[in-house]
C-alpha cells in the first residue's frame, strides 16, 4: 500500500470512503502488508496480519537515508529498524521512486530474497507511460500517466532532479470533469512547479462526458499557462534544450505524437 489519497470523485464520496475501501482490502489479506509509514492514513489501517512500514521517517521499519542523485539514477542507503542494511541504486529519479523501491526491498526481504538479487532493481527500466522518454533534437519528450495533483508533483520533481539544468515545460490534459473540479486549486499548485504550462481540453470519461467547467477555469489559476491545440503543437518548438512533460490519463499522447512527428518532419 503506497498511499491513501482522495481520487475518483465520480465514484468515492470522501477520503473516508477511500479509506474504508483500503480497510476492506486489508481485512482480506492473509499473510502481511507492506505500507508506506510516511502516509498518516495508512498508519491507521487495522489488521490482524503483520504490517511492515517503509519510508523516509525514522519510525519506519525500512528507512531510506542519504539519498543522492547520480548520472545514472538515484542512490540511497537502507536502514532496517535503525540498523544499516545496504546501499541501493535505481535508474529513476524523485522521492516517489525511492519509496517504490523501498517497498520492493521490504517485501523481498520479508520473502527472504538475497540482497544481491534485490539489487537487480538497478536494471529496471520502468513501465510504459511512467516517465517514458524520447530525445528529439535538444528536447526531451516525456509521456507520463500523471492525472492527480500528487502524481503531477512527482513527475515534475523527477524532471527537475534528472535534468537540473533544463527548463521543465508541462503539457497537461485533465482527466474527467469531476476530478478537475474537485482538485482545481491543487492542480494549479502542482502545475506551477513547472517553468511553463500548456493545457489541453478536459478529457471526459464513460461515466461523464461533460461538465460545468472548462479548461479556462484551470488556466486562470496557473502561472505562465497557455492553451494547446492539436493543430498548433509547433508552438512547443521554441523551448530548446528543455524537458516537455506530456501528462494525463486521457489521450494526451496524441499531442506528444503529433509534436514528435512535427519535429521529425522539420529535420528531413
The N- to C-terminal Cα distance equals: 48 Å
Strand pairing plus helix content: what structural class?
A: alpha/beta
Strand content: 15-25%
Kindly report the spatial arrangement of strands forming the biggest sheet: 6-7-11-8-9-10
Q: Uncertain segments of ≥5 residues (pLDDT<50)? A: none
Q: What is the CATH first-level class name of the largest domain?
A: Alpha Beta
Estimated helix fraction: 25-40%
CATH topology of the largest domain: Protein-Tyrosine Phosphatase, Chain A
Q: Please tally the helical runs, counting DSSP H or I stretches of 4 or more residues.
A: 8
**If you compute it from the alpha carbons, what radius of gyration comes out, rounded to the nearest whole angstrom?**
20 Å
- Count of DSSP E strands? 11
Net shape: globular
CATH superfamily of the largest domain: Mur ligase, C-terminal domain
SSE arrangement, N to C: HEEEEEHHEEHEHHEHEEH
Question: What characterizes the major β-sheet?
Answer: 6 strands, mixed
Describe this structure in words.
With 268 residues, the protein is an alpha/beta fold. The protein has two domains: 15-123, UDP-N-acetylmuramoyl-L-alanine:D-glutamate ligase; 132-267, Protein-Tyrosine Phosphatase, Chain A (Alpha-Beta Complex), CATH 3.90.190. Helices cover 30% and strands 24% of the residues. The protein is built from eight helices and eleven strands. It has helices at 15-27, 95-110, 115-118, 149-162, 177-182, 184-191, 215-219, 253-267; strands at 33-36, 51-55, 62-70, 73-80, 83-90, 132-136, 139-144, 167-172, 196-199, 225-227, 242-247. Strands 6-7-11-8-9-10 form a six-stranded mixed β-sheet, sandwiched between helices. Strands 1-2-3-4-5 form a five-stranded mixed β-sheet, with helices on one face. α4 runs parallel beside α6. 32% of the residues are buried. The mean pLDDT is 92.
Amino acid at each position: 500500500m503506497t498511499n491513501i489519497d482522495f481520487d475518483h470523485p465520480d465514484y468515492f464520496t470522501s477520503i473516508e470512503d477511500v479509506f474504508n475501501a483500503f480497510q476492506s482490502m486489508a481485512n482480506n489479506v492473509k499473510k502481511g502488508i507492506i505500507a508506506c509509514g510516511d502516509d498518516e492514513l495508512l498508519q491507521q489501517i487495522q489488521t490482524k496480519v503483520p504490517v511492515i512500514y517503509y519510508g523516509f521517517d525514522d519510525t519506519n521499519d525500512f528507512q531510506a537515508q542519504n539519498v543522492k542523485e547520480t548520472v545514472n539514477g538515484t542512490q540511497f542507503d537502507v536502514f532496517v529498524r535503525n540498523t544499516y542494511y545496504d546501499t541501493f541504486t535505481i535508474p529513476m529519479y524523485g522521492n516517489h521512486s525511492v519509496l517504490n523501491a523501498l517497498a520492493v526491498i521490504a517485501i523481498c526481504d520479508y520473502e527472504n530474497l538475497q540482497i544481491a538479487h534485490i539489487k537487480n532493481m538497478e536494471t529496471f527500466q520502468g513501465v510504459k507511460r511512467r516517465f517514458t522518454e524520447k530525445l528529439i533534437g535538444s528536447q526531451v519528450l516525456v509521456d507520463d500517466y500523471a492525472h492527480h495533483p500528487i502524481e503531477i508533483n512527482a513527475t515534475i520533481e523527477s524532471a527537475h532532479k534528472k535534468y537540473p539544468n533544463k527548463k521543465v515545460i508541462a503539457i497537461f490534459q485533465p482527466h474527467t470533469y469531476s476530478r478537475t473540479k474537485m482538485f482545481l486549486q491543487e492542480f494549479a499548485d502542482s502545475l506551477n512547479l513547472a517553468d511553463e504550462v500548456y493545457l489541453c481540453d478536459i478529457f471526459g470519461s464513460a461515466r461523464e462526458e461533460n461538465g460545468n467547467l472548462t479548461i479556462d477555469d484551470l488556466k486562470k489559476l496557473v502561472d505562465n499557462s497557455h492553451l494547446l491545440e492539436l493543430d498548433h503543437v509547433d508552438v512547443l518548438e521554441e523551448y530548446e534544450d528543455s524537458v516537455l512533460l506530456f501528462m494525463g490519463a486521457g489521450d494526451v499522447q496524441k499531442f506528444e505524437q503529433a509534436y514528435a512527428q512535427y519535429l521529425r518532419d522539420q529535420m528531413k
